[in-house]
Amino acid sequence: MSNAETVFRAGDRCQGVAHRELRTISTAFGHPMAGSDMLTRCEEIMREVCEDFEAELKQFNGEHDHVHLLVHHPPKVQLPKLVNSLKGVSARLLRKEYDTHVRRYLQGGHFWSGSYFAGSCGGAPLTVVKQPYVQAHRRGVKLVGATAHYVTSDLDEGPIIEQDVVRVDHSRDPDDLVTMGRDVEAQVLARAVQWHSESRVLVNGHCTVVFR
Predict the structure, then answer these.
(1) Which residues pair with 116 in a beta bridge?
(2) Which of 123-137, 149-163, 187-201 has the lowest mean pLDDT?
């Protein structure tokens, strides 16, 4: 599976906006962790990597086979580069510092899983979030929707995991559209995260097959 991110679009609110992004990132180890000490050291390394990218590691937690990060980063940071650096630096240092354990369980495989999952948690000011809905209201749109998809090198062209829409009419104002848009985004996110975490999404080229 290619590197993966879940992104939600309800208009073009991500274009030309200079704000910090808040994202959750999850990835799996290619081996079991040695224990809490190794996990703590992993957090220290990843925090330093984030600082090098002018990002902030807000939260970190994990278990013996995976980690979850909450990262606050500036828009100039390309997420694949950040994740590759997080994985690459931590793999190199942890291999060196926990050589015996890693050699015992890794057996020539990769330190990290080849894929990761990232979910956008927003971070844009309300005025930015609201703008596309104001434009949509002026045009009299009848549907507000959201899409969850994997991100490839073509950021918004990855295989789609889930989509949904809600119907609106002239009785709704822009604030209503914002609320309805956020609701449908949350529902799409929940389903996409669940299906991905349960390994129910099969990527086939530019498409996906979801086993429900």
Answers:
(1) 27
(2) 123-137
The amino acid that residue 62 corresponds to is G
Q: Taking the model in full, what pTM does it have?
A: 0.56
Give the C-alpha separation, 117 to 97, whole Å.
27
> 152: closest CA among 15, 3, 10?
3
d(CA 169, CA 192): 27
* CA atoms of 144 and 116, how far apart (whole Å): 28
Length of the chain in terms of residues written = 212
Please, are residues 159 and 149 in contact by the beta-carbon 8 Å criterion?
yes
State the DSSP string of the chain.
-----B---SSSTTTT----EEEEEEEEESS----HHHHHHHHHHHHHHHHHTT-EEEEEEE-SSEEEEEEEE-TTS-HHHHHHHHHHHHHHHHHHHTHHHHHHHHTTS-SEEEEEEEEE-----HHHHHHHHHHHHHHT-SEEEEEEE---SSTT-SPEEEEEEEE--TT--HHHHHHHHHHHHHHHHHHHHHHHHTT-EEEETTEEEE--
* Alpha-carbon span 47 to 40, nearest angstrom: 11
Q: What is the pLDDT of residues 151-160, one digit of tens each?
A: 765 656 778 8
- Sequence-distant (≥ 6) Cβ neighbours of residue 43 within 8 angstroms: 57, 60
